[in-house]
Structures are given as structure tokens and as C-alpha cells.
Structures
1.
Amino acid sequence: MKVPEPPFIGRQEEILFFQREAERIVRGQGEDFFYLSPKGRGKTTLLLKVKDLLFWGGSEPIPVYFSFSRPYSDLLDFSEEYLVSVLSQVLVFSQKERLALKPEDLTSFPGLQREAERQGKEVTEELIFLHQKAMVSRDYKQALKNAVSAPARLGRSENKAVWVFLDHVQGVEDLFTAGRELFPYFLEAVGSPWAYHLFSGEPPGYLKKRLAGAFFTRPIAVRDCPPWTPEEAAAWMQALEERFGIKLARDLLDIWLDFLEGNPGLAATFLNDARWEYAELESHKRFAEAYLKSLIGGGLKRWFEPSFRGGSALEAAQGRYLLKGLQVLWKKGSEPTPVEELQRQVGLSLNGVQGLVSLMERAGFVQESFGMVEPVASRVLRDWVEVQVRRWILREEPRRIIAAMGGRLEEELHTYRDEEPQKEEEKAIRFTLVLPNERDAELVAVRALEQIATYSELEADQVEKIKMALIEACINAAEHSNSYEQKIRVRFAVTPQAIEVAVEDRGKAFDPLEVQAAAVRKDAPFEQRRGRGLVLIKEWMDEVRLENTEVGTRLVMIKKRRRKEPSS
Amino acid sequence: MTKNFKVIRETRGDVALFKLQGYLNDLGGEEVERLFQEEVGRGFKKFILDFSRVAYINSIGVSFLLGILETTRDGDLMLCFTALSKINEELFDMVGLKKYAFVFPTNEEACAYLNGR
């Protein structure tokens, strides 16, 4: 089901930018540029809004919008669609005051021809003639040259600059068999004082590297489309609430939006799914359930799927390698991974893995630089990978995935709530550290604790005890949990009354009593002697509790604070 | 051998001195035990473990120390710990290491004690 068009909210800063740019174009000082952002940030809606404002707002520049949004059989096919689109928009603009009277069908050449004759637009007639001539001889080069240069020729004849918004430019590579051949023609068109081009697309990293860098041999500016402000995102979510007829818990809305990366496209896609099943999203639990359902078989699943060359490709080898590759990268967090290491872990040839990296980069999942691959910081993508891996590789049922992951998501959402501003007396300073399950990683946690202790003015002997307990807790988590994600999360919360350290893993739960019992058995295998750690932790800390969560184990340790004595 | 742990081996007359440095974990413990056994093999009977540069000891590291201590008790050997930080001394107390080993502030004091035996 198609996601309904979202309402237009905010974006005042960007609209002001476009208005200033339009004024520069009118003065002959405009420029061609790329306009980039991650998928779903609302560029298309914004460009259409700007086009609308320019159309009704003045006599110049003439706005033209074109989207690379369908597959073209060949470059002649593209030339025809592009030319029809440009000609019709310029013709409509030049008689916009009389739009109500417009009788002609401007989606075909005969209609355009008649309207051009009626308006006395000789250049338009000439462009149509040249196109038809190129079509007869199947001369795609001539047809392309004619179509791509049309805005500048029309601008000159009208004595008004044309501003062309070319949207979804990433489609150039996807929609053409010979897409790259197109760029030299646009390169020729760029720089004309009569036609300015805005190339809008995603993902930014890939386009900057591949299109802006490689195809445009002359420098062309790049502007990033900024994310929405939290206020804009919240206002828009409330507008969607009305449009979708789903009731949302107002006090949790900003947390959920943040969870969906503040991305309007992701949020609309999610809500569009949720509305069919729920009349109300009133809790984190319900949100997590709806979110997972969308990831498993709804809009959020389809959001990422095109990058796998169609959903069914997930079953194919390429899809599996992609998931495997992403999984390897996520395991390392935001740390870049050398291509060779990725190759070793995925089990492809060097060429194969380079193709894989290129595919992932093009999808906006990773960025590659000097042989190092880094995943983008996307929570939803990470969850999507986790769900797909579970579903397609482990063959898990959706309800089992929801049972396994729902708890974790709910917990994460609750953590967000905990991090919200609190009353002065209960204000906690919070830090979270994610450690790889690697040898001596506990020392990193200790170092972090030292820094937190300095900041929080804890007494030295208390800090030493917490450090010892923390070391034991980390090695316990690493040893016993057998965490599937090979990570340990350490959360610190410092309040005026106490310091709380929680060490979490997402692996199999373990029974602390069992572990302690093993520690005191003389015949216990050596590796089980680690259970002694829990006894020590209880000695070092004031309060200790071990919780088996739905996704693993959490050891919560509390040390009541004694303030550092002020130095005299 | 871990990057975060090092042992410097010295002798003071008939005393084998191990200066431990860094984080005493499972690998560190293994290393200390190995060196200890080597010195026992070479005929040493008196040992000092110097903890002045030991930042942390985890429970597995403690297990190795308990193992070494057990060997000294079984084999008529003598073992002293020196220069324990306050927290490590507390740890040794908690796990019973202090009950069976002698603890001194400095290596010199430990040497004087061992040489007087």
C-alpha cells in the first residue's frame, strides 16, 4: 500500500535558502549544485513545495521538476520523457494566469505542438521537430543533446532563466542500461546562464564519490539537505496521526521519532503499517511490536529491500552475503573494518567483496574510504539486518522474533525515557559504553569509570571498589552469556546519592546461584572458577542484583556515594 | 602473554623476585605460574611477588595466585607478597591469600624476612 503523501511542515530555513538562490539566478549569479541527504528526509516534498512557490511567486526563474523514477527502455525513451516534461512545464508556466482555460493535453507531442503554436513558441516547435527527427533515425545522441539542452534554449528564448530540479539522480545508474552515458550531456548543459540544474539524490556519500566526483569533471557545489528540527518532526508526526487515524501517546512521541532517526520517510512508513493493526499506540511495548511487524513484513522491510535487487533476492546468494557483510560491520560498531577483513569474514573473493561494498555503499548502508568500510549510524537499518538475519537465515517465525527482540526494543525505549530531563533531586548523569567481547575490554570500562569518577567527585577508595566490581562483572558477562552479538553494554548512572553500574549482555541467561556454587566446588573445572567474581562483586558494592531479561542478563551494581572530602 | 601484563624476573641471593606489572588476569596468572614453576625447577625455595606496579587483579588472576600459594605450602617453599595497594590488600584478605602468605610493604623487608629464615 502506498504511503499517503505527508503534509508539508516547517522547513523555513531551506525555503529561505531556495528563495535566495532564485534571486541569485534572476541576477545571473546562480549555480548548479547537488542537493543530497539520506533516504526519506523529505527532499522530494521540499522540492515540489519550492517549485510550487516559484511557480506562483513570480515571473522568474521558470521552475521545472523532473524525477528519475521509472525504468527507461533506452536513452531515446528517456530523451522523450525528459523533453515532454520540460516543454510542458515551461508552456504551462508561460500561461499560468490562464491555467483554468488550458485545453490541451501537454503529455504528448501533438498537444505540445498545438499549444506551442497557440502561444507562438518557435523554439518549442523546433525542439519537438529535432526530437522527432532524431527518433526517426534512432540517433539517441542527437535526441539526448536536444532534450538536455532544452531548458537553456527555452530560457534564452523566453529571456528568463529556467531552474531544473532533477530528483532521484541515483536512479540514473539503476534505471538505464547505459545510464552513465547521460552525464556528459548534463555536463555540457551545466554552467549556462539560462538554465540552472539542481541534482537531488541519495545516499550522500555514494553520490559525492561516484556522481559529483567522477562524472562531473568541473567542480559542482554540494549542499546537504538538513534533517528536520525536533519541533518540525513532532508537528509532522501529529499531522500524520490525524491523517492516518491512529492515536499516539503524546508523551512518548518524541522518543519514538528519535528511535526512527527523526526521518520523516521512516516514520510515515512505520505509521502507515501500524494504523492497519492498531487504533492506538499507547506504550513502548505496543510501539516495539508494531515496529518489528513493519520490519518483518511491512513497509520498513520494503524500505531497505530494493538495495537487495528486489525482495526475493534476500534468498539468493547476493542477499545473504550482503546481510552477512552488514552483520560483520555492525558487530564492530562504528569502527571501520578493512576490506580484507570483511572478505575473510564473509568468505568472498576480493573482487566479490569489493562488489559487495560498492552495493552497500550505493544503498547508503556503508561508506568506504581508502579500503576501510564503515557502517552508517542507522538504528533502523541495524534492527532490519537483525530481523532479516533471524528470519531468512535462521528461519525464525515472526512471533518468535517479536518475542526475542521486542523486549530489547522496549527496554531501549525505556532507557530513552530515563534519559529525559528529570527533577533536580532525581537528576542522574548517564553514560553508556558498548564494549566488544574482546580480551581485556573491561579495562576500557574501567578507564571510562575513572573519568566519570573525576567528573562526579567520587571518593578514591569507593572508585577502586567499583572498578574491581566492574572488571568482574564484565568478564562474567563475556564468559557466561555467550552473547550472540559479542558485545557488552555498560551503563553508568551517577546521582547525588549513588553510582549505579549496569553490565548487560544479550546472550543466554545464566543462573548466578549455579555459577557461585560451581566456584566453591573443589572439583569445578578451572574456567568455572570465574564464578568467584560474583562473590567479590557483592563485597565491593552496596547493592547487587542480577536480572535475567528477555534478551540476556543484566547485572546491576550500586555503590552509595560518599562525597570526596573538600581539600583544605 | 597479554599486552597489559609483564613480569620482570630478578634474584636477590637465594630469593627469586618477580616484579609484576599491569593487569593480572588469566593470561598474566598463567605466566606468573609458569615462571614460578621454572624457578622451583631451578632449585629456588624463596619467592617474592612484587605488586607495586599491578593496577588490577581479577578473580582468575587470584585463582592462579591461590594455586601458587598451594604449591608453596605443599613443597616447603616460602612466598611473600610486597607493595600491595590498599584495594589489592583488601582483595587478598577477602579471598584468603593473606592468611597463608606473608605480606610486606617493600622487597627489602621481605628479603630480610626470608634471609632470616
2.
Amino acid sequence: MQAFKKLTSTAVPLPIEDVDTDQIIPARFLKATTREGFGDNLFRDWRYNADGTPKADFVLNNPVYQGDILVAGRNFGCGSSREHAAWALTDYGFRVVVSSFFADIFRGNSLNNGLLPVQVSEDFLHQIFTAAEKNPNAKFTVDLAAQTFTIEDTDAVFEFEIDSYKKMCMMNGYDDIDYLLSVKDEIEAFEQRQVGVF
Amino acid sequence: MTLFDKIWNAHVVKQIDGGTDVLYIDRHFIHEVTSPQAFNGLTKRGISVFRKNKTVATADHNVPTENQHLPIADPLGRIQVDTLTQNCADFDLDLYGLGHKYQGIVHVIGPELGITQPGRTFVCGDSHTSTHGAFGAIAFGIGTSQVEQVLATQCVLQRRPKTMRITVDGELGKGVGAKDIILYIIAKLTAAGGTGYFVEYAGSAIRGLSMEGRMTVCNMSIEMGARGGLIAPDQTTFDYIKGRKFAPQGADFDKAVEYWKTLPTDADATFDKEYTFDAADIEPMLTYGTNPGMGIKISEKVPLPSDLNNAASFDKSLAYMGFEKGESLLGKKVNYVFIGSCTNSRIEDLRAVAEFVKGKKKAENVNVMVVPGSQQVRLQAQEEGLDKIFTAAGFDFREPGCSACLGMNADKVPKGEYCVSTSNRNFEGRQGPGARTILAGPLMAAATALTGEITDVRTLLS
Ligand code: SF4
């Protein structure tokens, strides 16, 4: 997993609520057996017409908006547990997703793939949308060590929360599995204690 | 202590910095879509599966629902199913694959095989794993990285969720069932109302449900954002499990029941949040929008957005569905009906539909697909002659799988068409690009099949 420490970038605004993982990557594109290549079909049905031509009114097709940060409305990533959603976002090039609220499974999947979910207040989310809409070149800084998200144009800062263990993993590029493998003895000891109960 | 706390506490291997727990998983279900990358990970690390007898595999999401005895026509689908078969052979795991008498939707086969038992922890790379909570178990969906973790260590890292209790007391009205209860709850709490929580469903209306009805309720917990839902085990639970293939047998069963009886929430336990609803207030429900929280009673009209912050998303949703604020959905022409999915594809669902449509014919304009949840359900339906009732009514009775619930295989709803569906998600494009899904219970779906338009099932009940 790629480590994440600090990033300054422009942002791509997607002011829609309840974006579910079926929109992020529709089920019919889940047929691959590897983690790569899902970025091409990120937001497929919002991004392309049935004949494969791009929809001009979708933000990813608007050359004015570029960057490593996706900013979306509340309850981002609800629905299916497909980790392909996180893979599609990272494969496309996003490193950070900002919303006022994330669905649980999506948040966990993102953290396991080096995609940082930054949860901000509803009010701060609107400040970000406003800044990005006013000036598509507006820069934003995400500092994981300090746990801050800064709107550079206005100097507005939001301190976001993250689990201390997850923060350590993101900053060092560690996977949960490395940790779990390191405590295997304790898992076996637990099993011994549980014999006969389950 | 709550039911949830008792089970969770019994499965914490250790707690790590910041309040994350290493949680032991008793049983792990896998399927073809979310597992291949996990096996790749094991291979890359050069490790094997830690506890082989605790993982069970089936092929469901991407299988055809006709001619299952033939090679899968879709090449990508075939590769995925073949990859699962190969991985299960390489890593020595039990597989109920295509053609096996136990094959079916993962959340249907776990309970019917008696693998799902009270007090256990379950995970699967699928968000509707919450279904298994109906037995008084902790069950939740995970991503593929976590599938790999469970294969490698039989554990996941998880923050302890908050607890919520939803009590539904009273008698359900005529034509109202488990699906209506859960659609009603989600409509009240919204699609994000349960995020961060594990939900215990309680009250006389819940206790009065069969195991299959309880599964329907727990199944959709994820649709209000809750990671899982659970219901206290009782005699209904024990009777259901008894005698099933992987259930404890003889004296072991009695011992297990003794343990299961200790699980229900203690009278003095408290929850982080509580809601109470009156069963008498619930009607046949259906959705009008593009998330499961956008539901109404059949007698109600499409509402106005609940707060102005989400007005744009609300309008986008209605535009997709082709509905207007303030209109009733009664009488809307519907050309597709789907009866199936891990929410409503069990034998009781099929029996209810068959009883309702027996001797009748579907409306001319409608295509009706009935997809049983498993090979065992299909066989049972045939033994009871339900298949003949469906065929006589003009319904298409198919082979088991997820089918039009997620439109990964060939079973899709065409662009712009309405489908009254007993599945669990009405997201844009869920049943095929441009498809418009209206979620409802099996009886409402059957009523629509007969009339070809959205109908209040109660008007057709004698
Ligand atoms: S039936 Fe639908 S919701 Fe259930 S497991 Fe299959 S795809 Fe998921």
C-alpha cells in the first residue's frame, strides 16, 4: 500500500449526496480478477453515454477540473461492499476523498488501499464546493500528520478525525494484514480458550 | 449487556491502540466476485488459508440463471467462476459451485445449511451479510482486503460500532410483511440513519416473524447504513436450525441451545440509540427514488425533499425515476417484475407469491422473473408444484443466483423501464443501465405482475 503524508492539489467537486458504490463502479464492470484497470469505468454511467461517448456535463469530463482530491456530498460510498470502488478511485488517480459523511464499509476499504477519506462538517464541505466552483485552480492541502484540511484561497482549516492506528498505517503504507499476521500466536491462543463454545 | 455486546466481547482476541479490536470470525463465506484479488494476495505473500474448515464458497453473483449445466457463455463471467473453482482447489476450501446441490445465493445457503447459528461471528465480501444476524449472530460485510485478512488469520480489525435498538410492537395489517417492516424503518431513518451502528430488532411484530421474515429484515440493515442487524434467538430460531446439515446434532444441539439461551439482551441493558414503531402504522411499502430510504406507504404520495440541502440530489433522483413530487404511484404502468435476491427468494416468499397467483395469469405487458435463492429452494418449489403455478401464470421460473438484483449476468431490466423488484437496492442502474427499480415485498410484486401496474395488494386480497 502506498504511504500518505501530505498533499496539495486542486479538487474535483461532485456535489451529489448518497453516491453509492454502484455509481462509482457499476456491477457489470466487476468481472476482473485483479485490482487494476477499474479507473476507466469509474462513474461509468454518469461519465459516458450508452454508445461510449463522454457526457459533457459530468465533472470528470470537464477539463477545468483536475486534481487528486474528490469532494462529494454526504453519505459517500453507501451500498455494496465492493472494494472495486476504492480501486477505481485510486486507479483513476484520486488520493483523497472528502465528504461530510462516509458509509462504513467504503471508509474501511479506502483506508486499506491508501485512499484517505477526510470527513468534514456540512458547513466546511460547502466552503470547499464554493472555493472550487469560484476558482477551479483553487488549491487544497491535506496534512495527515496534523490531521488538517486547508482551503488555500481562504486559509480556512478543518481538523479531521482519524483512528490513531489507521493514521499510523496510512503514514507508513502498512496493511492491516501485516499487523494481523504479526499477532498470529495470540489468535491461536484465543482459539484454544474458545474450544467447545462455538 | 446487549445481545450484540455479549457476542462481540466473546470474539475480541485483543484490543489495539485507539480502540480497534482484533475480532475473531467463526465462519467466512466467499463468492466469485470479491474473492479473486484476496487469493492473489495470499499467493503473493506465499501463505495458505489459516483455518480451511471455516470458509465456505459458492458461485452466485455472476452466474447465468438458465442452462447452468452448460459452460457460461459470458467469457469474463466464466473466468471469474473458474478462478473461484481453481482457488478453492488450490487452497483446499469447500465449494458449492455451479451444478452443486447446495449452490445458491450465499446469504440463502448459509442459513439453510445450518452454518448460520446464534452467537457466532460471520463475514463475507458482500454487504448483505447482515442477513445472518436474524439468528442472533454478528454478521457484516467486508471488502476484499479484509477477505484476504480472514483467509490469512481468521480475524478482522474492526472498531466497535455503537448499538441501536429498533422496536416494532403490535399486529401487522393484512398484506403487510417483513419486507414492508424494513422498508418502513429505512424510510423513517433514511439511507444513512444507521451508519456507525449495529441494530437489534425487537418487539412483538419482530418476534412474530418466521426465521425467513427475520432474515428479510436483517438483510436490509445495510440500506440504512448500519453495518448489521440482529434479532434475539428464541424457539423459532432453534426449531429452524435443528436437523440442518451443519447444525449440532443430538446432545450437542441441546448444549448449544443452552448457550444460545444466554444470549438475548439483558433487561437492564442500554443502547446508544432507540426507536419504537407501531406495526399498525405500516402498510404495503414501495420506493419512489434511487436509494432505499426513499420509500412510502402505498397510500402515500411522492413527498417533497425532506431538507433543502439535498433538494438537488432529490430532484436528480426523481428525474431519473420519471416521477413527480406529490403524485401517487398507484396505476403506473410497469413492464418488469423481479422476484428474487437474498432479501426475498426463500421458499416462504415463493409460496406466498404462488398462493396469491394460483390459477391467475400475469398481465399482457409484464415480464415476470422468479429466481429462487438456492438449488434447495428450487427443488422444494418443484416438489410443492409451485413451479407449475408460476409457469401457468406466465412467469419465468429460473435457476438460482443473484440475477437481476445487480444485473451482472444477462438478467437485466432495459433502459427507462420500471421494475417492481423484491431485491434490496434501487440505485441508478442497479438492475441494468438506465433501469428504474421500485422496491417492494413479494406480494406487491405479485400484484403488479397480475395487473401490469402498481397496485395496492390489499385490494386483491379476499
Ligand atoms: S442477491 Fe443481490 S444483494 Fe443479495 S448477495 Fe446477491 S447481489 Fe448481493
